[in-house]
Amino acid sequence: MADGWSAAKFFEAWTKLARGDELEENEMPFHDRTILRSSEPLLPPRFEHIEFTKPPLLLGHTVAKEEQMKETCATILKVTKEQVEGLRKKANDIPHQDMEMARASDNTQPTRLSLAVDFRSRLKPSLPPGYFGNTVLPTVTSKCVHGDLLAKPLSYAAGKIREAIERITDEYIRSALDYITSQEDVSALRSNFHIRAYTKTPNFLGNPNVYIGSWINLPFYGMDYGWGKPIYVGPGLLNDDGKSFIMSSPTADGSLLIALRLQTEYMDSFKKLFYEDMPR
């Protein structure tokens, strides 16, 4: 099992060898998984790991099956360099807010945003740069309601995300590893990150919730097997409602691409709101 950064470094090494170059010592992968393991003896979790709890359901529903069965569609949106700079100044959470507006939820509808955090540099000591494996831990915002996301300042939504990311400390990561190890059936902890998780109690991340992943720092566009650099790199599967990835543009002009899947009935409204809210 490997995360996006490990995969990217593998492809970088592969392309270098394909061009007839040799790998430097610091480009060799580090495969010792024992440096990332649970406590011995196993300790009880020291935190409440809300990232492994079930996300909110639509009000009035006890299961997510109805939402899971709805038709969805995917799209790729472009955000220019100027728009990116404007968003940074506003500390905005436009994708989450606009999805909530497009879905036209009840103001009291609970929602949460899920994202993945690479914890390589958050461990003490940090993992070796060439560590090959999965160093991504899911994190989620504390629950908020639809009405607050729309009525409160933009900094409210950004603060929720910042709080979720800052939660991932060395102590929290060690506790999460112990929590995962203590579970008899770890499949129940899986989210539908890249593939749909078929479990007895699937955690549907879609309506009324949102998942955002970032590939901005993955160096895919610098890879060359000898016949030129790629013209597009993106997720091969966007399998669920509310799931999105923010990616660098192949033009290397500072613009971004956002690949997302949403229930078809809300897609047109989302696109309209997304670009209306975008700085000009």
Automatic annotation (TrEMBL):
One of its GO terms (molecular function) is acyltransferase activity, transferring groups other than amino-acyl groups. It comes from the Eukaryota. Pfam families: Transferase (PF02458). InterPro entries: CAT-like_dom_sf, Plant_Fungal_Acyltransferase. Belongs to the plant acyltransferase family. This is Spermidine hydroxycinnamoyl transferase-like. It comes from Juglans regia. The gene is LOC118348143.
